[in-house]
Amino acid sequence: MNSISNIWKHPNTSVAGLLIAMISVGGVLSQQGITLGSAGTGTVVALVSALATALLGLLSKDPGGNSTSTGTTVKLGVWALIALLLPLPFTAGCSGATVAQDIVNWTPTLEGAVATIDSTAALLAPADAPLFAAATVGFDAASNLLEAQAKAYLANPSASVLAELQSQIVTFQQQVNAAVLQAGKIVDSASQKHALAAIEGVGTIVSAILALVQSVSSKAAVAQMAAQSSIKLAQVRPYLDGAEAVRIVAGHYGEPVEVARIRVELAEREEVLAGF
């Protein structure tokens, strides 16, 4: 009976333990090849594990995390419900038309992020500006092409147009990843901070669009896209702030940062699981 009463006395600890157990079981099931069905481009097991991971992170960041008050428990329950009701990362629906519109809706934000790239060189130390310019030289052209293909897919969501969009989003993603690695070589700390922040702004939107494209792509197409990605997310992740990505996503969808953080974490996990 003491163990049962402890659940109610220490709800946060109990919830954390449950989430850790879900993550552990999910890992074992994945290793055994047990998927429990598909969920978008991933599996049900992967989705549940990702949700548990995101909620555990949210619980650890809660300033009231050590409190046993009813308010804290209710707050956690509300965010858990929101997370469980969220569709797959960045997707508002499964239809090609809905996803195509969401991709097009991102393009003005992408234009703004690329414009920031163009103006960032002036903030860097003179010795660092040429390296940054060389690393990001193709962003304008890649952005314009992606925007054109997104609008073409919205007008005609056919397999052939989708194939072009798949190729371009992977190409742009690789340009961004390469730029992050180059910016990481900048020695001056202030210059490096400015450079990485600007590139991450573009990369966040490119990752959001990649997640959308994944959601309407077949497993074979996603595997082919991932095979074309030589610079993986794990290689660039140490250079990224993360908070900037959450801010951009929250602003775009007009949602609380807690929800945006879950979106970003789920999208990143899906990309890693897919091989990006």
Total number of β-strand segments? 2
Reported for the largest beta sheet, the result is: 2 strands, antiparallel
Decide which structural class fits the backbone.
Answer: mainly alpha
Question: Rg from C-alpha positions?
Answer: 20 Å
User: What is the approximate shape?
Assistant: globular
What proportion strand? under 5%
Multimerization status: single chain
Q: Please tell me the total number of domains.
A: 2
Overall pLDDT, averaged? 79
Share of residues in helices = over 70%
Give the end-to-end Cα distance, rounded to a whole number of Å.
48 Å
Order of helices and strands: HHEEHHHHHHHHHHH
Biggest sheet strand order reads 1-2
Poorly predicted regions are: 80-85
Give the helix/strand layout:
Blueprint (H helix, E strand, L loop, with lengths): L1 H8 L1 H21 L6 E2 L2 E2 H18 L8 H16 L10 H25 L8 H7 L3 H17 L3 H25 L5 H27 L3 H9 L5 H4 L6 H11 L3 H18 L2
Antiparallel strand pairs: 1-2
Helix pairs in contact: 2-3, 3-4, 3-13, 5-7, 5-9, 7-8, 8-9, 9-12, 12-13
What does this structure look like?
The chain is mainly α and 276 residues long. The chain folds into 2 domains: 2-85; 96-274. It has helices spanning 2-9, 11-31, 44-61, 70-85, 96-120, 129-135, 139-155, 159-183, 189-215, 219-227, 233-236, 243-253, 257-274; strands at 38-39, 42-43. A two-stranded antiparallel ribbon has the order 1-2. Residues 80-85 have low confidence and may be disordered.
Give a brief outline of the structure:
The protein has 276 residues and is an all-alpha fold. It contains 13 helices and 2 strands, in the order ααββααααααααααα.
